[in-house]
């Protein structure tokens, strides 16, 4: 359904974010994109909906060549790609319903959206989605009054209201606690199955990726170094993706909470969580530069 | 924080290195001499006899101002109404013009860098020129009256509101904007959903704040003929009717205090 | 309260049927209409009380064009001497008044901070601030010109007085928002009152104080360009004369100079602020 061929991205600063990416995503497949910070995961999914302009190559969604689109046609195509963000990216001062309905913006005209006169079907669908993610009671709450997990659910509902063919998911769990992370991943997984959506999920947490994805793609310095089912992801492969590390002693690299229980004798135990924590701000800096 | 060692081998800590210390002395010296130079120029242009006389003059002034001629207050309601209108309508007009200018001037919403510079020029010239100067100018163009005052206040407000608003726009979170663009929204929709809700509280706060300042400014516009209570003030001063002047002062004081209170309340309610 | 609990499911039900409207900004409908009608009535009354002499406006339109044209060819030369003296006066007034004003504002500001000053002191300082902030600079200038005679001295006193109100209010707010733990930490070492000021309060308020002083310098320059109208020295008098003589090319020159200086001020103050932080 989605085909990337020979995609390159070079930033004006000269940094090469992506090199010659070839990737095909069949309908209904959930693909996890893993790799260290700065490997180009965010850039890759932003190239797909053209929040970042690819320098070279072709990206096709079904029969549409995305890289050549502009203006009205680009917006039209963006509707069919729902995006879910790391920091939820809700508009804080709008209510939950307004945030969900903003998924319809590509379908309605400016004045209709400005006056919040959405078509009845859109509202019905928005309500159904809120029901699906379990947030109908929060309909009129402001987005900033919600907890992290609830916000992410609103973000998911917004993306789905676009009636997308494809979900682009950027670090959905990076700001959430482990339990909520799993709930959110499961929800995304289920929704993809219900609606036969393809999804590209950027994720730091290898364990989560292995558990919830059909397929894993490993990215390192802008190049694909692994592409296969979760079962084939071995320690050697993780080493090629992330670099040298004792993988067996670090069960949950994205969660720094267990670092407190470690004894000082176990050096490797402590190293990984710290590295994961340090990577996060770096990732947001790189993301900021990308915009 | 440099630590050096004495000949005896004891470490001593100083807050600054010798070089920065000297540079700082030098900067202070330059600053103080500049101040003294300026002071000298002012004192050369001053008739010190008058200044020595100031205490007596002040006492004289106060004795003439008291007691205030309260009867005069009844003639001040209309000018006060005009003053408030000048401020309110002027602010309204000003923020209407400032709103698009701010969006054109903010780095993240401007359509083109050239348009941005043009918007910045508008903001800077409006900010640099005091509303009283705008009023002088407009009185020669439009003739004396409230209209000149309203436009003067509006022109001055563009720069103030425009500057603070465009800074607020530049400080918004970029991710919601990105998310709204990702839904396939048009440029205008991105503005109204991604940017506007984020700057609305700032915008309302800035506008009310400016209204409060404008009440104060509009009290003097009459001095150059642009309507409001300043006209009465000018007349009373010219006829040396200081007991009327004190009534006007009390009126102004009360109005400004009330407007400041309202503005603070509204801003609190918004934030 | 119970109304709200009932209202929420109603909105949910409506949304389920596809009917949804934005939450109104103000809850009570009566209040909404009242405010809207009030605003319209005010607007009508206010606009009705604006008297416009359209004939005079039409006459003035030509002058407006002249004035705009003057910006294309500003005349710096014919009143060169007046401009230079006025400008020098304005600049010297600005600098001295800011320095004096800030120095005087520090004790007033500390006195007006509720958390470090005794109550009588607090009221006196707050009163000074209120008076200084309420009256527009030009009004204060009128009084000081009467007292001190025409010239830049009256202007300087005016601006210094206005500076006190502005700076002291903001300084007082800053001191009231202090991080009190730092003050206690310094006090706990056995520091005297002065030492506490120097080590706990000064470092916390200093950067903002410098920033605000630079900002006030900028405001004072802009104000110094108008208080000349009432005889308090500075470029305002020159500008006023040129405007009333319809010498728009000279006025344009003066305005351009003012804009340039304000820009310069702003540019350098952002540098100073960066340097001090």
Automatic annotation (TrEMBL), chain A:
<dbReference type="GO" id="GO:0016887">
    <property type="term" value="F:ATP hydrolysis activity"/>
</dbReference>
<feature type="compositionally biased region" description="Acidic residues">
    <location>
        <begin position="245"/>
        <end position="265"/>
    </location>
</feature>
<dbReference type="Pfam" id="PF00005">
    <property type="entry name" value="ABC_tran"/>
</dbReference>
<protein>
    <submittedName>
        <fullName>Phosphonate ABC transporter ATP-binding protein</fullName>
    </submittedName>
</protein>
<keyword id="KW-1278">Translocase</keyword>
<keyword id="KW-0813">Transport</keyword>
<dbReference type="GO" id="GO:0005886">
    <property type="term" value="C:plasma membrane"/>
</dbReference>
<dbReference type="InterPro" id="IPR050086">
    <property type="entry name" value="MetN_ABC_transporter-like"/>
</dbReference>
<keyword id="KW-0547">Nucleotide-binding</keyword>
<keyword id="KW-0472">Membrane</keyword>
<keyword id="KW-0067">ATP-binding</keyword>
<dbReference type="InterPro" id="IPR003439">
    <property type="entry name" value="ABC_transporter-like_ATP-bd"/>
</dbReference>
<dbReference type="InterPro" id="IPR003593">
    <property type="entry name" value="AAA+_ATPase"/>
</dbReference>
<dbReference type="InterPro" id="IPR017871">
    <property type="entry name" value="ABC_transporter-like_CS"/>
</dbReference>
<dbReference type="GO" id="GO:0015416">
    <property type="term" value="F:ABC-type phosphonate transporter activity"/>
</dbReference>
From TrEMBL, chain B:
<dbReference type="Pfam" id="PF00528">
    <property type="entry name" value="BPD_transp_1"/>
</dbReference>
<feature type="transmembrane region" description="Helical">
    <location>
        <begin position="22"/>
        <end position="42"/>
    </location>
</feature>
<keyword id="KW-0813">Transport</keyword>
<protein>
    <submittedName>
        <fullName>Phosphonate ABC transporter, permease protein PhnE</fullName>
    </submittedName>
</protein>
<feature type="transmembrane region" description="Helical">
    <location>
        <begin position="84"/>
        <end position="106"/>
    </location>
</feature>
<dbReference type="InterPro" id="IPR000515">
    <property type="entry name" value="MetI-like"/>
</dbReference>
<dbReference type="InterPro" id="IPR035906">
    <property type="entry name" value="MetI-like_sf"/>
</dbReference>
<dbReference type="GO" id="GO:0005886">
    <property type="term" value="C:plasma membrane"/>
</dbReference>
<dbReference type="InterPro" id="IPR005769">
    <property type="entry name" value="PhnE/PtxC"/>
</dbReference>
<feature type="transmembrane region" description="Helical">
    <location>
        <begin position="132"/>
        <end position="155"/>
    </location>
</feature>
<keyword id="KW-0472">Membrane</keyword>
<feature type="domain" description="ABC transmembrane type-1">
    <location>
        <begin position="80"/>
        <end position="263"/>
    </location>
</feature>
<keyword id="KW-0812">Transmembrane</keyword>
<keyword id="KW-1133">Transmembrane helix</keyword>
<feature type="transmembrane region" description="Helical">
    <location>
        <begin position="247"/>
        <end position="264"/>
    </location>
</feature>
UniProtKB/TrEMBL annotation, chain C:
<protein>
    <submittedName>
        <fullName>Phosphonate ABC transporter, permease protein PhnE</fullName>
    </submittedName>
</protein>
<feature type="transmembrane region" description="Helical">
    <location>
        <begin position="250"/>
        <end position="267"/>
    </location>
</feature>
<dbReference type="GO" id="GO:0015416">
    <property type="term" value="F:ABC-type phosphonate transporter activity"/>
</dbReference>
<keyword id="KW-0813">Transport</keyword>
<feature type="transmembrane region" description="Helical">
    <location>
        <begin position="31"/>
        <end position="50"/>
    </location>
</feature>
<dbReference type="InterPro" id="IPR000515">
    <property type="entry name" value="MetI-like"/>
</dbReference>
<dbReference type="InterPro" id="IPR005769">
    <property type="entry name" value="PhnE/PtxC"/>
</dbReference>
<comment type="similarity">
    <text>Belongs to the binding-protein-dependent transport system permease family.</text>
</comment>
<keyword id="KW-1003">Cell membrane</keyword>
<dbReference type="GO" id="GO:0005886">
    <property type="term" value="C:plasma membrane"/>
</dbReference>
<feature type="domain" description="ABC transmembrane type-1">
    <location>
        <begin position="87"/>
        <end position="269"/>
    </location>
</feature>
<keyword id="KW-1133">Transmembrane helix</keyword>
<dbReference type="Pfam" id="PF00528">
    <property type="entry name" value="BPD_transp_1"/>
</dbReference>
<dbReference type="InterPro" id="IPR035906">
    <property type="entry name" value="MetI-like_sf"/>
</dbReference>
<feature type="transmembrane region" description="Helical">
    <location>
        <begin position="95"/>
        <end position="117"/>
    </location>
</feature>
